[in-house]
Design brief:
Helices cover 27% and strands 25% of the residues. The protein is an alpha+beta fold. It binds tetrahydrodeoxyuridine.
């Protein structure tokens, strides 16, 4: 499986594409499919605020719209642009999107602490009682 550090590097690269003129907070994500493809995403803000899309959902929706539905891990890097990275955990809406497509006991999140350092979490740790209609095997 693709190295967590390499996936984090791709998340950092995706973060450069952030459109975040309202918050100045840039987020990048790199999502690894079970068949070894990577889909990246950045946060895309909107002057009307509610249409804003997080980096994680951008990556998921790109992948799903290309026919991918099985994922093994996602790397996420965020922070105020021009400042050191801040350790972030995805918002509840993004965790719920992950819940739709990923096994919470298996899916891994690579959360950047700095450009070189990260921590790994499973989806079940971050959303322990997540809702799903998807039948479990
Ligand atoms: N944001 C993400 O893209 N991912 C997260 O995990 C948390 C928040 C974005 C949304 C908004 O554009 C900015 O960060 C500040 O909330």
């Amino acid at each position: 499986m693709k190295d967590a550090k390499e996936l984090l590097r791709q998340a950092l690269e995706a973060r450069e594409k952030t459109y975040s003129p309202y918050s100045g907070f840039g987020v990048g994500a790199a999502l690894l499919t079970k068949d070894g493809m990577v889909y990246t995403g950045c946060n895309i803000e909107n002057g009307a605020f509610t249409p804003t899309c997080c980096a994680e959902r951008t990556a998921f929706f790109k992948a799903v719209s290309e026919g991918k539905k099985e994922f093994s891990r996602i790397a996420i890097a965020g922070g105020h642009m021009g400042k050191p990275l801040e350790r972030i955990v995805p918002c509840g809406v993004c965790l719920q999107v992950m819940m739709e497509f990923c096994d919470p006991q298996e899916f891994e999140l690579v959360l950047a602490i700095s450009e070189e350092d990260y921590e790994m979490r499973r989806l079940a740790e971050l959303l322990p009682y997540g809702f799903s209609l998807v039948p479990t095997s």
